[in-house]
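I hope you will forgive my troubling you with a question about protein structure. Here, with my thanks, is the record as I have it:
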Amino acid sequence: MTSPEGGVLRSGNFRRPVFDAAVAAAELEDLSPHDLRHTAASLPVASGANVKTVQRMLGHASAAMTLDVYSVYSVFDDDLGALADRMDAAHQASVTRSHGA
């Protein structure tokens, strides 16, 4: 991916106009791209995914590094259920809007 001018895509070129705008539109606060990386790593770790798979997904040199960094941020079962409920509600609302109902 490149910047609108065709150059190197830097964090500032993407973060302010695209990412931060999407965060605001979703009515979220204090969310960074790195927070999404932590979520993408923590959810599979917390749900018992093969840590070697998560390691490869993140590009870490070792599975130990993946566990050391992301098991600290693991999500508890109640949190996963609440997250799933919110994601399901958001999906249902999106489907309803796209079908004009």
The two ends are 36 Å apart (CA to CA). The first helix runs from residue 11 to 25. The mean pLDDT is 82. DSSP finds five helices and no strands in the chain.
